[in-house]
User: Fold these one by one.
Assistant:
Number 1:
Amino acid sequence: MDANKKIDTVSGSPFESLSIEEMTKIQGSGSQNMMTVSPVATPIASFQASEYISHKINKFLHRN
C-alpha cells in the first residue's frame, strides 16, 4: 500500500451541501422503479406452464 495515500480522508463536499441538481446527478432522479417478481410467483408460473405443455402433449399423443 502506498504510504502517501490518505485512506481516512473524505473527498469532495458533504452530500447535504450539494444542490438538488448535483444530488440528482449522483443518485438519480428516482424515476425508474425496480421490477421484481414475488419469490412464489415464479415457481407457480413455471408449474402452470409445465402443466399446460404436458396437457397439450398428452392430448396430441392420445388423439384418435
Number 2:
Amino acid sequence: MQKTRRGLIILILLGIGAWFASPYWVLYQIHNAVEQRDYQKLLTYVDLKQAKINPLMFIGKHHDGKDQAHYMGLNTFMVTTHQLPVTFILTRDGWSWKITQIE
C-alpha cells in the first residue's frame, strides 16, 4: 500500500512537472527548427489561422539579449524577445502548444 501511494505521488508530480515544463520544450523545438531551417517542423508549432502573421519573417534574425517567458494563465504562455522586439503567445493545444499570437 505504501509503495502504491508513493508511486502514485511520483506519477502525479511528474505529470505536473511535464505540464509546466512543456512550453519550454516547445520553445526549444521551435528554436531548433529555426536553426536547422526546418520550416515544416516550425509550422507544426504555429496556428497560422489564428496567428494571422507569417512566422517565417523572423527566421535568420538573431538576438543576444535575454528573453522573458512566463505563464499568463494555466493554458497561455508568453515569450518576449528583446532584440526583435516580438512577443509570442503560446496556447495549449491538447498536450502540446501552438503559437497563436505574434505582437
Number 3:
Amino acid sequence: MRTSVIAAVCIAAVLPVAACSSGETKAQPSKSSASSPPVASVAGETLLLGKSAETVGAGGGGRLELTPTSVVHATKTKTDKPEHGLFVIVTVKVRPTTDAAAAETAPLQRGGWSWLTPDGQAVGPGDGTAADVFLDGFDSGGPIQAGASKWRTKTFDISTAQRGGTLTYTDGAAHTFRWKIPAEDTGPQTAQLKKLTTG
C-alpha cells in the first residue's frame, strides 16, 4: 500500500513537468525560418524581363536589387564584332537596398552573370569578344554606395540560334536568379542601345 502511494505521488509530480515541457516546445518558433534571408523565396524562380530580385552582395556584404530591363541583339558594335555571330546585350539597374555599399559577384568568386541558351549551354561574359564591349553611359562595375543606383549592361557573344535564352546571376550567398529574355529586341532602353551599337 505504501509503495502504491509513493508511486502515485511521483507520477503526479512528473506529469505537470512533462506537460509544461511539451507546451514550451510547441510555442517556440523555428530560429532557422525566422532568420532566413528574403532572397531565398525568389532564388530558383524564373522571372520575366523587368522584374527585380534582391540579392546578396559579393563576399556576403550588403544587398543588391537587380532589375534587367531591356535587351538588344547586335551583329556588331561601333568597335567590336562577335566571334559567334551575335551580341545579346541586356541592361540591368543595380541598386543597394541597405545602408551599406555592395558589389556584384564575379566569375572568380564562383558567381556573377551568365547566359543559358535554349538548349542548356552556359555562355559566360568572357566568352568570345563580349568582354570588349563597353557602351557609353553605362557603368562598368565595382561597388555601389548606399542610396545610389547604376545602369549596367551584360553582354554575351552567342550564335543566332542561342537568342531567346535565360539570363542568370549567382550572388554572394550562392543563390542563383534567372530571367527569361525575349528573342526580340524590347524594353525602354532599346533605342538607346541601338544608337550606341550602330551609331
Number 4:
Amino acid sequence: MSRTLTVVVGGVVGIGLGALSGQILFGGSAWNLIVWAIVAIAIGLLPTDRLTALLASGVYGYLLCAVFLYTANTGGAPVAQRILFALALAVVGPVCSIALTLLARVVSRQLRGRRRGRRDERADALPTTRTPSDE
C-alpha cells in the first residue's frame, strides 16, 4: 500500500472511531482508550516503512481526538467554540498514538530478532553429515 493511501486510511479510521466513541461506543467513557490504543498499535505495525507508520499514526491520533472531542462535547457552547476546543486539545492525540506506534515497532523488532536468533541456534545445533570429500 502506498504511503498516501496508508495515511488516508489512518485518518479515515480516526474519524470513524472518534465519531463512534463520542456517541455510541462505551458512551464516551475511558474504556475507549483501550480500543484506541489497540487500533494505534495496529496502524503502527501494518506499514513496513517506519516513516509511513508514524505519519499514519499521527494523522489517526489527531483526527480521532478532534472528532471525539467535538462529538462528545454536546454542551450549550457555540459550534465555533466547540470546534476550536476540539482542534486545540486534539494535539495530545498524535503524541500518544506515535508513542504507542514506536513502542509497538520496537517490541516487534525485538521479538523478530529473538525468533531469528533461535532459528539460527537450532540450525547450528543440527548434526552435520560428513561426505567422503571432507575426510
